[in-house]
User: Fold these one by one.
Assistant:
Number 1:
Amino acid sequence: MYNHKNIETSIEILGNLVQYPVLGGESNTSIAGYITDYLKKNKISYSTVPNEKGDKMSIHCRIGPNADGGIILSGHTDVVPTEGQPWTKPDFEITRSNGRLYSRGTTDMKGFLACCLTMVPHLKKIPLSKPVYLAFSYDEEVGCLAGPTLIKHIKETYEEKPRFAIIGEPTSMKTIIAEKGVAFFKTQVYGQAAHSSQVRRSVSAIEEATYLTQWLLNKMDGFIAEGNIDNRFDPSYTTIHIGKIKGGTAVNIVADYCEFYWDVRNIPSDSIEKIERSFQEFCLERIREKKKSFPAFNIITTAEFPIVPGLDTPKTDEVVKLVNSFTGKESFETVAFASEAGQFSKEGFSAVLCGPGSMEQGHKADEYIEITEMNKCLHFLDELVSWCKNDKIK
Ligand SMILES: [Zn+2]
């Protein structure tokens, strides 16, 4: 693919963006300041959606008329840590080598942000019949925490109704129509300490935790046995996984406390809410049973962050046709990772993922994006802009 005329500008912007080492969970005012300065310089009015503490903010703006049916380009400003990874290149500085751009965040997903920002001054000059929106969030990497407030703010800010949302996560510029949802939970079990010889005269938090974890694993096996299968995903069923467990004091003491962490990644036909509800019902049964003899017995399950809904956009949806017309490919694939796409979809936007780079290189040491991927994305955005001009699919 030939170089896009703005490729060097986009690489320069990417070089600026990666120098803000904002990790998920941290304040993003530095990188947000860079982006808002850039928008100001280009005379684009924008809105910020700060968190309660005021140390993080999402940013959104509209370029073009206040007409219904526009396209939102969505991305996140945070990245995952590099600590403990064997980096051979600087982790928060661009290294250009062999057609690749190395640094944390290049593929996930500042490459996309850089391409979007590159387009801004050009977009400004063109008379558009449909608007383009930029929507940049924070804390995506720690549970898509800012997505819901950003989306709500977008709906409240604009009188017109944007119709499409393209989430520029690294998909090698393929159109992704479905992804699993995800939720992380912590379950705490409070038992009663005693000498181990007295185990049946007390209540072991570890023993109770094993019943609870077994219930969760049976639930997953039940889905498979009942044929709740969606072959678009690998694995093709809803998974429930216990990732961490801690409890007890010594081999001869009945454990008074045990906690475990578990996650659910659901195919669209299963519901995380339903799984959580039936688990809570089972816990309530155990509490009722045990409280009769041990009033202090308790089980508390809390979500680590609000459930991130999956994405299940029908392949016949207009957004698929539209985005495929921009990429020039006939694709509708699925991915295993979760993103803000499901949150946009839940709020009524036709959403797909499509962005430069591959998740193969995301979250790893020596993360990189191929310059050809940046080129592809800039060409993609050209197509998008010409659609916004003419409002017609070629
Ligand atoms: Zn990402």
Note: Residues 76, 108-109, 140, 169 surround zinc ion (CB under 6 Å).
Number 2:
Amino acid sequence: MSGADHIDPAAGEPDVRLYALHPDGWDVRIKSTWEKEYCHARLPGEEHFHLLLCGEIFLAQGGEKFCLQCALRRGVITRNRLYWQRGTGPAGESSAAVQPGSDEAQSPAG
Ligand SMILES: [Zn+2]
């Protein structure tokens, strides 16, 4: 099993910071009740929605809620602190999220 995320041993602790690629319209919330609410997305191969737990940090846009794992998968947020270097230009210029590993990145002059 490879359940552990990539951790740089030199760093000691994983970087848990997250960055919203297009923050407009998104809210970060913490679920504060045990009322049943579900993540709006599912992981590939899964047939159930994730139950959001009390105390869980999640993202919301309109009436849709996403757990952080799904938000990461969907490209709403990223762990890449250098995301802004690849997504040149202001947010909204391109509707497509920057895909990690894509070779289509344009090189800005300068
Ligand atoms: Zn989810």
Note: The helical segments are 68-73, 83-86.
